[in-house]
Amino acid sequence: MAEQNSDKINRIGRYYLFYGSNDYMLKQRVSSLVRTAIVPGAEMFDLDKFDGRRCEAADLLNSISTAPIVSPLRVTVLENTDKLPVKTQTLIFDSLLKIPEYSVLAMMAEKADKRSKLFKALLSEKKKIAFEYGDFAHADAVGLVAKFAGDRNKKIDPHLADAIVGIYGTEPYRLENEIEKLSLLVGEREIIEKRDLSFASGFSRVETAYELPELALDGRIKEALELCGRALSSGISEMQILYIFKNHLDRLNTACNTKEFKDLMAVYQMPYPAATRIFQQSRKVRQEAILNCLCCLFKAEYALKSARFPSKTVIELLVVAIFLASGGNKSYE
In which element (H, E) is residue 120 found? Predict the structure, then answer.
């Protein structure tokens, strides 16, 4: 084990850039680097963190040049590197090749602007030292839900994990928060079940993440509105309801362009029953109708953000508009 860890230490470079909109993955990558380079419990001695919005260049450079006390390497983490003043970015650029062999600089940034001398150099390095992390795709988020459940010694069915993403979106911190609540809800029970999500979300069954748009498309307006009412009462936001509609329409649109339901399973990490269900629906609806429905969603989102109309009214009008925009029952005949 000691030799394996030594090999990992030897492979660590002197500096890295982790950038992109996925704050969760940026922090995960930096945490992984810290766990490899620093002896557990020695973080207070061999780890320094700075924020590019308010750090002093002298303090940052001093940390980089300071030898570790306990660990094989000292790690200096610089968050918001893209917020550094140009002068400080230039100082870091001039110091990259002077970083001692016992030190590692881990830079984090939301954006890597190639107009900056520092970022241009980091992105053009032949050796892979810059890693970009964008927002999670739906399939990645489903896997993340399973991981969050496993971290809490819980198991979750892929269909249920898919429904959770369908309701709450792909934002990792929100998903982790929902899994935390569900884990507390089930108590000592090992498996998180459909009834648990139903109770927490206000939906009658977890399939409602798919059924809500279906009810609107099929003209079952009263049922759809009752379902929305229960969801809103349980804490589901109006924007989440829009996401559920958009998620369903995106899947329908993808299914219209695929030959087999297995393609849907691959793209969205969907379980077999959900994929076959969406695939069958896609054969009964025109892509033009899907586009019309997406336009309705855009208008509803604008109305909600402008706050010019009561949010409940916007959702009620959306349900009716989705039905009319799809051509009414014709699309499902």
Answer: helix 117-124
Question: Which has the higher per-residue pLDDT, 328 or 190?
Answer: 190
Torsion over CA of 232, 148, 34 and 58, rounded to 10 degrees?
Answer: 0
Is residue 79 classed as helix, strand or coil in its secondary structure? strand
Matching CATH number, 2-132, of 3.40.50.300, 2.40.50.140, 3.40.50.2020, 1.10.150.20: 3.40.50.300
CATH among 2.60.40.2890, 1.10.8.60, 1.20.272.10, 3.90.180.10 for 202-332 = 1.20.272.10
Phi, psi of 141 (to 5 degrees): -65, -35
Do 167 and 240 form a contact (C-beta atoms < 8 A)?
yes
Q: Answer whether residue 284 shows pLDDT above 60.
A: yes
Beta strands per DSSP E along the chain: 15-19, 47-51, 74-79, 103-109, 130-132, 155-156, 191-192
Q: What digits encode the pLDDT tens for the residues 38-55?
A: 999 999 999 999 999 998
Between CA 120 and CA 156 the distance in angstroms is 43
Tell me the C-alpha distance between 38 and 274, whole Å: 45
**253: which 2 tokens?**
């649109």
Structure tokens at 240: 């989440």
Integer angstrom CA distances of residue 162 from 119, 148, 157, 282, 314: 37, 13, 9, 19, 27
Stretch 191-202: mean pLDDT: 84
Nearby residues of 96 by Cβ (< 8 Å), 6 or more positions away? 14, 15, 105, 121
Side-chain half-sphere CA neighbours of 270 within 13 A: 25
pLDDT band at 165 (very low <50, low <70, confident <90, very high): confident
Burial of 333 (0-12, 13-18, 19+ CB in 10 A): exposed
Q: Which residues contact 221 (CB under 8 A, 6 or more apart)?
A: 215, 319, 320, 323
